[in-house]
Amino acid sequence: MPDLANLLTFALVALGMVLTPGPNMIYLVSRSISQGPKAGLISLAGVAVGFIFYVGCAAFGITALLMAVPYAYDALRYAGALYLFYMAWQAVRPGGRSPFQVRELPRSSPRTLFTMGLVTNLLNPKIAVMYVSLLPQFIQPDHGSVLTQSLALGMTQVAVSLSVNALIALMAGSIAGFLAGRPLWMVAQRWLMGTVLAGLAMRMALESRR
């Protein structure tokens, strides 16, 4: 196991990363506001499974193999970019509505919410890159099994991410009432959301492997 100081340092790094806005946060916030905190937490469960998948891959070296195969990495990266472009188009298309908008609509089933949370996380190759580049910096070969340390560090990141995102999902639900009576804010948010998503997609599509 990594020593306590090393583990706490890694936890602080993980906290800084989870507070940086990205596709996971955008999806969780939109679901929490449009369908309620419970929907956001169900979506978060899907995101959590995606994190656990990457933790296992990193710990057993599969992610390193993925990074070594250019076409495999690029396929994942472009799939993620296309998915974000699709979400951006849904936000700004004529007649489109903001995911933050309070409205009556067919509610997504728990299964759909969970699946979309999982897909949102898995289609982000930066998560894989994070585990390949970040975890090794905190591994201490003289502190026992590398596999055990990798799993401990990875699960620390998952715990930090789940705690912070759960709090965000619960707080996001209260924003619905504020936005409901302010249509201009809703329009501005819809275009801001589309712009952010398109920017993330473009960056993902153009970014070379690290």
What does this structure look like?
It is a single chain. With 210 residues, the protein is mainly α. The chain has one domain. 77% of the residues lie in helices and 0% in strands. The chain has ten helices and no strands. Helix 2 packs antiparallel against helix 6, helix 2 packs parallel to helix 8 and helix 3 packs across helix 7. It is globular, with a radius of gyration of 18 Å. The model has no long low-confidence stretch (mean pLDDT 76).
Provide tags for this entry.
210 residues, mainly alpha
Number of helices: 10
Low-confidence stretches: none
For the record, the count of structural domains works out to 1
Total beta strands: 0
Shape: globular
Rounded Rg: 18 Å
Give the end-to-end Cα distance, rounded to a whole number of Å.
28 Å
Structural class: mainly alpha
β-strand percent reads under 5%
What is the ordering of alpha helices and beta strands?
Answer: HHHHHHHHHH
